[in-house]
TrEMBL record:
It comes from Oxyplasma meridianum. It comes from the Archaea. InterPro entries: NAD(P)-bd_dom_sf, ODC_Mu_crystall, ODC_N. GO terms for cellular component: cytoplasm. This is Ornithine cyclodeaminase. Keywords: Lyase. Pfam families: OCD_Mu_crystall (PF02423). The keyword Iron-sulfur does not apply. One of its GO terms (molecular function) is ornithine cyclodeaminase activity. Its EC number is 4.3.1.12.
Length: 303
């Protein structure tokens, strides 16, 4: 059994490789060779304990992401079992792993849905997860300019300056969500907002929106009309989204919308490719974490 530290994760995981690994595991999922359960939360005495189980028989692994959050912060690990030997294979510190795969997944969905490689990008939010949102999209698209909006403009400005230096791309802070979205075709939103930050009127005639923040029902980054007036809405796990996503709950229950699950998109991409206005909602499922962990173990020559 291997124990993998945060430093080892950071040294060995590359964004482009994680994007490819996630697409591979969702192909397995769409073909019935992988499974994932919705996140389960136990809440008691100010502590939240989360489990996110999954299995990919094509890779020969089973396991879960599990984490605890309370007044002293949070601790994340990914546990991976060898399905063929019925043995514990690895425990992986997963704060950095989770950050990377959170950026990689919307990049993977976007490259399937979005026409062309040359786009401008807006990032809504400038917190811990926002950096890999930029990194993931830059790994798949030729982006000339990134605009960043945050409820705290000074934080957005500092973040934009840091990302410009890190990635060598023009990254600009904007004072309003509307100005951040002007002339933008790719949008990644990664906030914990309880109120919609932008609406359909803030977007152009053609767009792809990745909603990556908010995994409790009272949170909502995009107004209902962003989803209801789109040509295609995709969710990575319908059961989980109807438990956790304010946008998806409203879309299905109030608008009568019919989202496509990501696993079905990945294996039937020709059916859905080329839509003009698309939305992808991600909350994270354990299948993504164990697939990323499997990639990491391969990169480290441990399997």
């Amino acid at each position: 059994m291997f124990y993998i530290t945060e430093d080892e994760v950071d040294r060995n995981l590359k964004m482009e490789e994680v994007v490819d690994a996630l697409q591979e595991t969702f192909v397995h999922y769409g073909e019935g060779k992988a499974m994932a359960s919705a996140r389960d939360r136990l809440i008691l005495d100010g502590t939240v304990y989360n489990t996110m189980p999954a299995i990919d028989s094509q890779l020969g692994i089973a396991g879960m992401k599990t984490y605890i959050a309370g007044k002293n912060g949070a601790k994340f690990v990914v546990v991976i079992f060898d399905q063929r030997k019925d043995e514990l294979l690895a425990i992986i510190d997963a704060n950095r792993l989770g950050q990377i795969r959170t950026g990689a997944l919307p990049a993977m969905a976007s490259r399937i849905l979005v026409k062309g490689k040359k786009h401008n990008l807006a990032i809504i939010g400038s917190g811990f997860q926002a950096q890999t949102q930029i990194q993931g999209m830059l790994s798949q698209f030729d982006v000339d300019m990134v605009k960043v909006y945050s409820r705290n403009y000074s934080h957005a400005k500092k973040f934009a300056d840091e990302m410009s230096r890190k990635f060598g791309v023009d990254v600009r802070a904007e004072e309003t969500a509307r100005s951040a979205l002007k002339d933008i075709t790719l949008v990644n939103s990664i906030t914990d907002s309880n109120q919609a930050i932008f609406s359909r009127s803030d977007l152009g005639d053609e767009y792809h929106v990745n909603l990556c923040g908010g995994n409790i029902p009272m949170r909502q980054e995009a107004a209902d009309d962003v989803l209801s007036e789109s040509d295609l809405v995709v969710t990575e796990h319908l059961e989980q989204s109807l438990k956790e996503s304010g946008e998806m709950i409203h879309f299905v229950k109030n608008s009568g919308g019919k989202p496509v699950e990501l696993k079905d998109l990945v294996v039937n991409r020709e059916k859905y490719y080329g839509k003009q206005r698309t939305v992808f909602k991600t909350m994270g499922i354990g299948l993504e974490d164990i697939a990323t962990g499997y990639l990491l173990l391969k990169k480290m020559n441990l399997i």
